[in-house]
Structure formats: structure tokens, C-alpha cells
Design goal:
By secondary structure, the protein is mainly beta. Helices cover about 10% and strands about 45% of the residues.
Length: about 150
């Protein structure tokens, strides 16, 4: 029997009503099982996730609307509407909205690890250093942000 619940989670809504504010971005829970964790995101202009590493998870981004500037293992890149970004475990990556428009995307990681617990812990925190500290306790290791972030 699967750990996944049957049903539909509408766009712009979180499964079970679960929604998080993570440093100005909005994350909506889409699914959580031991093998996979997914969340829809809304990145206002100028928001970003600094370079970090998931040592135990592969991560993916499917861009629904807009364009992300990316840091992928030391290289710059861009992903726009319809693009899929693959970020293998152990590889540094950062996600930036440097455009004048919001970016919407679907993120997922495999296995789920403790991202659900992390997002619950950092919801509505405004201190980036505390977000970094708590992230390290949940297998997400942040690197110093690039100077042009």
C-alpha cells in the first residue's frame, strides 16, 4: 500500500492547507511520501535560494511560469517556462529570480528526507542565519551567497 494520499491539490494551494513563507517566497505542499517530496513555489522578483547542497537528495525544478537564473555546480544557467532542472545530490546549486516578474515552479526531491520538517521549522522566519542553522540540521548545507545575489 502506498503512503501517498489519493486526490487533487489545486494550483496555488497546499495539500491539507499547508503553505509556508520562506524568506519572502511562498511554498505550497503538493506531496510527501518517504520516496518523494514536492512543492509548488512562487518567487517574487528579487528573491532567491542561496547556493546549497542536498547531500542525500536529488532535486528537480519544473518551471511553470517565468525564468530562474541558476547556479549549478559553479556554472551560471537559466531555466524558463517548460524547462526541467536536474540537480543531483551532493552538487551545489542556487535559484534566483533576477527578473521583474514572479516565477512559479514545481520542485521535488527524492527521497523526501526531512524537508517537510525543515519547511515547518523555517516558516515565517526572517533571520537568514537562523534559516541556515536550521537547514543544516535537516540535511541542507548552505554555501556563502555569491556577491551578485
Amino acid at each position: 500500500m502506498s503512503d501517498m494520499t489519493l486526490g487533487i491539490t489545486p494550483a496555488g494551494a497546499g495539500e491539507g492547507g499547508e503553505v509556508w513563507n520562506i524568506l519572502g517566497q511562498t511554498y505550497y505542499l503538493k506531496s510527501n511520501t518517504p520516496s518523494s517530496f514536492s512543492f509548488e513555489t512562487f518567487f517574487p522578483p528579487g528573491t532567491y535560494v542561496p547556493p546549497h547542497i542536498h547531500p542525500k537528495q536529488d532535486e528537480f525544478i519544473y518551471v511553470l511560469d517565468g525564468t530562474f537564473d541558476l547556479f549549478l555546480d559553479g556554472e551560471d544557467g537559466k531555466a524558463s517556462t517548460g524547462d526541467l532542472v536536474r540537480m543531483p545530490r551532493g552538487i551545489a546549486h542556487g535559484i534566483f529570480n533576477k527578473s521583474d516578474d514572479p516565477v512559479k515552479a514545481l520542485f521535488w526531491v527524492s527521497p523526501a528526507g526531512s524537508l517537510l520538517d525543515l519547511f515547518r521549522a523555517i516558516h515565517d522566519l526572517t533571520d537568514p542565519q537562523e534559516v541556515v542553522r536550521l537547514s543544516a540540521l535537516h540535511d541542507v548545507d548552505f554555501l556563502p551567497p555569491p556577491p551578485d545575489a
